[in-house]
Amino acid sequence: MSRKTLSAETVAIVKATAPVLAEHGATIIRHFYRHLLHDHPKLELLFNPANQGTGEEKTRGSQQEAFRGDFFGQEGARGAALTNVLNGSMTSLDDLPALKATVMRIAHRHASLDIRPEHYPIIGQYFLASVKAILGDVATDEIMAAWREAYGVLADLFIEVERDLMQKNAHAPGGWEGFRPFVVRQKVKESEDAASFYLSPKDGGPVPHYEAGQYVTFRLEVPEFSRRGGNTVYRNYSLSTAPGKGYFRVTIKREFGAKGNPDGVCSRFFHEHVREGDVLDVSTPFGEFTLVDSPRPLVFIGAGIGITAVFSLFQSALDRGIDRPIYFFLMMRDGRHHPLRREIEALAQRHPNVTLHRCYSQPSAEDELGRDYETHGRLGLGTLGRNLPGNDCEFYFTGPIPFMRTIRGALHLFGVAADRVHYECYGPHGPEIEADVR
Ligand SMILES: Cc1cc2nc3c(=O)[nH]c(=O)nc-3n(C[C@H](O)[C@H](O)[C@H](O)COP(=O)(O)OP(=O)(O)OC[C@H]3O[C@@H](n4cnc5c(N)ncnc54)[C@H](O)[C@@H]3O)c2cc1C
Ligand code: HEM
């Protein structure tokens, strides 16, 4: 990581003024987005409007689409994430090791979107202009100079880490830079609202190795999605198999708009328009939600479509021949809304070290307790507590943000060490997941 440091004076100013910035964070970020996206229509395409706090009225998602709906906070999670991180990072710039985990997570996301060094001065310019516009005279020249310097150091840090990640992927066997055309070889219905897409490179070359739990970014042209900069949409999808199968597979849930809200742009496109034989632009795999080297039992926990990355880890652990106890807890609405069901059940049957625990929140008449699922209800503290082998395990989970908060809180209550807790968010990182842990 970058060795550039800030003067003690700059650090002192940034730390002293951070609370004011935090207090006005939502207003600053709205101002920032409005001006940035207005002046840079091409950059606008990179951002998902569903993740922004630009002042558009949004309602909380229904239970049915809880997975995505939950990250629409008042200001939008992405807005919150950006201010939190800018604020948090800038005030920890004198403690780079502490910043590393946050920087790495964001850098993977940026690199997967092909964010380039030349983007950083633009973001910095608009961010600082918004700080000045909102804080007015409070933001003196001295304060602005300190924040400018701090942003520069943070930007350099991201640029360096992202360049390393991109180069590593580009030079790996079968790797590439940016996006590569892939052909959809197969489209398979997985459940009432999820389908899998099997992809291989159009040029016939090999699929690169990836780590189970990683995701790719799709760059799609969606005609219905028109913005001033064009129709391009970027979305991340976890690879939903272990590596080494000779293809990429993603499993995508169709997101219906609740209460008259629009349907999910990209998932609708995949479900309604993408056919076998179509060609799609795909990034190399990124992400740090991967199996850690550890002798402990493994516990995988997934809810809804969050099962995809967890399944990849589960399958990979079995492919590697791991024969210590593996627990797989999942929460679905019912058997019809249970993607990858057959694969999970077949693997659990074949491997005596696997214990599968399925929670159905609203089992249908076809679902039989004991045969199709183990618990009628939601997965939480009680079910986990009764069925876990103890707390000395490696825990991996994904799901809707409130679900993740419940699981994170439960693991904390069970006394699980923080470094054995691993999770991925299927949207901007939700700081509230850790809310019950502090
Ligand atoms: C690392 C990572 C891995 C992921 N892996 C997977 C995966 O394996 N499978 C998967 O299915 N998804 C996954 N996702 C989520 C995926 O990237 C998309 O976010 C998801 O498919 C929704 O995208 P969309 O374009 O369909 O919906 P968007 O257009 O982004 O909309 C999101 C939601 O908001 C609602 N909405 C849109 N506009 C409004 C509005 N104005 N008011 C209220 N509601 C609104 C939509 O109905 C939808 O439910 C992952 C995300 C990340 C970050
Ligand atoms: C120091 C500067 C920056 C900081 C602190 C920052 C912070 C963040 C954070 C916190 C996220 C959410 C990631 C997650 O939760 O996993 C994010 C995502 C993102 N960032 Fe940045 N970022 C910076 C610079 C940039 C630049 C220069 C660009 C280029 C345009 C950019 C584009 C994006 C995009 C497109 C996303 C995904 C958002 C979405 O899904 O809508 N960021 N960034």
Automatic annotation (TrEMBL):
Gene3D superfamilies: Globins, Nucleotide-binding domain of ferredoxin-NADP reductase (FNR) module, Translation factors. Its cofactor is heme b. PROSITE patterns: FAD_FR, GLOBIN. It catalyses: 2 nitric oxide + NADPH + 2 O2 = 2 nitrate + NADP(+) + H(+); 2 nitric oxide + NADH + 2 O2 = 2 nitrate + NAD(+) + H(+). Residues 5-163 form the Globin domain. InterPro entries: Cbr1-like_FAD-bd_dom, FAD-bd_FR_type, FNR_nucleotide-bd, Globin, Globin-like_sf, Globin/Proto, OxRdtase_FAD/NAD-bd, Riboflavin_synthase-like_b-brl. GO terms for molecular function: FAD binding; heme binding; metal ion binding; nitric oxide dioxygenase NAD(P)H activity; oxygen binding; oxygen carrier activity. One of its GO terms (biological process) is cellular response to nitrosative stress. Pfam families: FAD_binding_6, Globin, NAD_binding_1. Its EC number is 1.14.12.17. Keywords: Heme, Iron, Metal-binding, NAD, NADP, Oxygen transport, Transport. Belongs to the globin family. In the C-terminal section; belongs to the flavoprotein pyridine nucleotide cytochrome reductase family. This is nitric oxide dioxygenase. It comes from Polyangium jinanense.
